[in-house]
Fold this protein.
Amino acid sequence: KEHLAAAQKEAPKSPQVIELAGDVAFAGADFAGSEQAYQSLHELQPWNLVARLGMARAQISQSKLKDAFTNVDLVLKGASKDPRANYLRALAAYLSGDMANVQTYSQRALSAAPNYLPAMLLAGASSYALKQYEEADNYLGQYIHEVPQNIQARKLLAATELALNRPGDAVKTMTPAVAQAGEDVSVLALIG
């Protein structure tokens, strides 16, 4: 933060410094500060997609979904295949309970970036919610292969495997999570 403060004193209108300020604020869970920094970047460079996506990311974190939809949709008009924009659109849709759009936008993100793990997780979650268990199994299986320590994803994959009438696979999926979960009753209940 000291280096950021020095850079802000030296070059307060530098797009790179403003972007860094937005990233640092976001990393510190100062989502309003992050949004403000990216708003400043947007005012300085109205065409800057990073500014719009940064604002949207901060707005999603503050549950300002209407504002986030506006910013992401503007980016998607000019960059319809941008995986970050499609992911943020899917995330905002997820938080608003619109699983069909979660699936649409997460799949668009994955079309542009096949190994984009956050989009893969959302695609799996939305497929599960829409009772498309084979698709959910595919996405979540790939995700767990890359991020084996994610207990919530393991629980969702195990629930998918149970919906597909594969209880043995569900037990195998959850077994590594038992040591991590401690006293998490939902993990223990899935194991039986």
Q: What stands out?
A: The chain has a mean pLDDT of 91. The first helix runs from residue 2 to 10. The CA atoms of residues 59 and 87 lie 14 Å apart. The radius of gyration is 19 Å.
